[in-house]
UniProtKB/TrEMBL annotation:
Its main location: nucleus. The keyword DNA-binding does not apply. The keyword DNA damage applies. Residues 547-595 form the UBZ3-type domain. Keywords: DNA damage, DNA repair, Metal-binding, Nucleus, Transferase, Zinc, Zinc-finger. It comes from Laccaria bicolor (strain S238N-H82 / ATCC MYA-4686). Residues 219-254, 521-550, 602-629 are annotated as: Disordered. GO terms for biological process: DNA repair; error-free translesion synthesis; error-prone translesion synthesis; mitotic sister chromatid cohesion; response to radiation. This is DNA polymerase eta.
DNA sequence: GTGGATGAG
DNA sequence: CGCTCATCCAC
């Protein structure tokens, strides 16, 4: 890799497209002033920030234990999270609880929250039983939301992409540019003597004070280190930390000579400041320590973040100049998306031949090779995109049954449990985006050791999503999938929403859901009455065949409603239920407007069954479905 | 729409 | 390593 070139006005080079791929691009005034260069921005700065041992950290916050207390999170018999205090005892996620306790007798052991019979909310119980309980990760999701909200508040100028429950990408390019221009005002105008005008390279950057900004990955790593990291797979221990200390000492002796700063380095350092102070606030306000990696793109930011953990003081920073040597010893499997089969295949191919032209790779691996080819050279064009309110396109609740189901009622039972969880979670998500709508409901079931099978059905929109509503549809799917076989032997059940998206208000009704519905002969302009999505009998033409179609008669207004004719592929019971719920919504809205015209119709607010009686609160959560076996 | 494959943690 | 969760794609 070429050594860093010092940008200078006297240089003959004029920046071209080609330079965008370079690790040491010539950065011109045009680059600096540009607003929408996106992934081609030579000043692009991306950070990945993730929480250290997130589930364990959540439990530490919840239980108010100090960070020195070794703690593990348990899911049945398996460790799913180990905090750093516990890792010092050599405990890892792979261990059995028994082994962990042998290594650390005073280990704090916390089982994840579970749904339990007779309780409406998930909770932390003394004795959990996989035969009767179901794991709930809700608390972690909520904490995760808290954290990402705070980050977004603190870093309003950034693009933020929540990548998983415990990590997010940040694109610092915009705020960094602004600070760059504030701090170095002379950059704001192209000097009159600049040879190529706005295409003139920027003047040499000032020296950078990296102190306290983070761990700056060395350009030339000390000879005998680094590869060691491969062998002890992610197992941080005292030896590792010693190793790091040594590295730090060694690096300081030659760091200065090696580092000829670039404006991108300045950009990195500014991002490190911003990221660092945001992380400090998250730690202070919410109690979560995080690790960050800062680099020129997502892939490298991710890789950099995992370089050195935990990382409470500062993040890790990967300068462009350090990329080649940093990448060299990194195992394929550590790269995102290459942790599995694909990575293995590539690794084999690379071992076989030292020279691997892109053409060859493409012959063997197709499209994917371009991404891999570039990524191995430190290039990643993936953008940081704000997924907004629709973080997930699907939502799944599942349960593995240690003792397989033998009769239909047990299946019914678990479906209602899973439905309850989905209802809770979707209604929760709707607090953020009221118009969230899962297009389909999918039921998976596995019999014995066979491969799992699934059935799915369209999921009609309702303003209020109830357990009953989901479970009714789930039961239908169960019948299709499992039937009533005596020896059903179902060992795993999963219920999922898929195709979750926000919908237009006009598309929300059951009417919008039903295809080819002819029932609405009148135009929609005839009023905003939400009760007119279906005609009742007294408005129906005499020649119709509504009497043979499924119908529903409202006990309050005595009107009878029918499903439209062409409801192919739609389960009539479910459609009818949707129809009924929507009609009830109508009454609910009427009641509200009658009581006060100030009260808005709030999604998820309880619907009084009878406004004159004392409100009988409908059981929330899964309470009513447990203990009804 | 169904079912399988893949991957993260 | 067992479990939970998520996405993508061939058919």
């Amino acid at each position: 890799m070429s050594s860093p070139k010092k940008p200078t006005w006297t240089g003959k080079a004029k920046a071209t497209e080609r330079d965008f791929n370079d690790l040491n691009p010539i950065i011109t005034y045009r680059h600096l002033f540009a607003q929408n260069l996106g992934v081609r921005d030579p000043l692009r700065v991306i950070a990945l920030c993730d929480s250290d041992a997130f589930y364990a950290a959540c439990e530490m916050v919840r239980l108010e234990v100090d960070k020195e207390t070794p703690l593990v999170v348990l899911q049945w018999e398996a460790l799913i999270a180990v905090n750093y205090a516990a890792r010092k005892f050599g405990i890892s996620r792979m261990d059995k609880l028994k082994d962990a306790l042998e290594r650390c007798p005073h280990l704090k052991v916390v089982h994840v929250a579970t749904y339990k019979e007779g309780e409406k909310e998930p909770g932390y119980w003394d004795n959990v039983d996989t035969n009767t309980h179901k794991v709930s990760l809700d608390y972690y999701r909520r904490e995760s939301v808290k954290i990402s909200k705070l980050f977004k508040e603190l870093l309003v100028e950034c693009e933020v992409e929540k990548a998983s429950i415990d990590e997010a990408f940040f694109d610092f390019s915009k705020p960094v540019r602004e600070i760059l221009l504030q701090r170095y005002p002379y950059l704001a105008t192209v000097p009159p003597n600049a040879p190529d005008g706005v295409d003139t390279p920027l003047p040499p950057p000032p020296p950078i004070h990296w102190d306290d900004l983070g761990w700056v990955i060395p350009i030339n790593p000390p000879p005998p280190s680094e590869q060691v990291e491969e062998e002890n797979k992610g197992q941080e221990n005292d030896i590792d930390q010693e190793k790091d200390k040594v590295q730090e000492d060694v690096s300081s002796s030659w760091k200065d000579e090696e580092s000829i700063p670039t404006w991108h380095d300045v950009a990195l350092s500014i991002a490190a400041e911003l990221m660092g102070s945001a992380r400090a606030q998250v730690l202070q306000k919410l109690g979560y320590s995080t690790s960050a990696g800062i680099a020129r793109n997502k892939f490298l930011a991710k890789l950099t973040a995992s370089y050195k953990k935990p990382n409470s003081q500062a993040g890790s920073i990967l300068r462009n100049a350090a990329i080649p040597n940093y990448l060299k010893p990194i195992a394929f499997r550590k790269i995102r998306f290459l942790g599995g089969k694909l990575g293995k295949a590539f690794a084999q191919e690379y071992d076989a031949s030292t020279v691997t032209p892109l053409d060859d790779m493409q012959n063997k691996f197709g499209e994917e090779s371009i991404w891999v080819y570039e990524v191995l050279r430190g290039i990643d064009r993936a953008e940081v995109k704000d997924k907004g309110s629709v973080l997930n396109k699907s939502m799944l609740a599942s349960k593995n049954l240690p003792k397989p189901i033998k009769n239909a009622s047990e299946g019914h039972h678990w479906i209602r449990v899973l439905a309850a969880e989905l209802a809770l979670r979707l209604n929760d998500a709707r607090k953020e985006s009221p118009n969230l709508w899962p297009k389909t409901l999918v039921l998976h079931a596995r019999k014995g050791y066979e491969a799992g099978r699934s059935k799915q059905a369209p999921f009609p929109f309702t303003r209020e999503i109830t357990v009953d509503y989901i479970a009714t549809l789930g039961d239908k799917l169960w019948k299709e999938l499992v039937g009533n076989n005596v020896a059903m032997n179902v060992s795993s059940v999963q219920l999922a929403f898929t195709g979750i998206d926000v919908t237009e208000v006009g598309q929300q009704s059951i009417e919008g859901f039903l295809q080819n519905s002819r029932v609405n002969k009148r135009s929609r302009e005839d009023g905003i009455n939400p009760d007119q999505h279906f005609q009742s009998d007294n408005t129906r033409a005499p020649d119709d065949q509504s009497n043979i179609r499924p119908s529903y008669t409202c006990p309050r207004c005595s009107k009878t409603y029918h499903l439209p004719d062409a409801t192919s592929g739609v389960d009539s019971d479910v459609a009818l239920k949707a129809l009924r719920m929507e009609h009830e919504d109508f009454h609910f809205a009427q009641d509200l407007t009658r009581e006060s015209d100030q009260v808005p119709i709030v999604v998820g607010s309880p619907r009084p069954l009878n406004k004159n009686k004392k409100q009988r609160k409908e059981p929330v959560g899964i309470e009513k479905f447990f203990g009804r076996k």
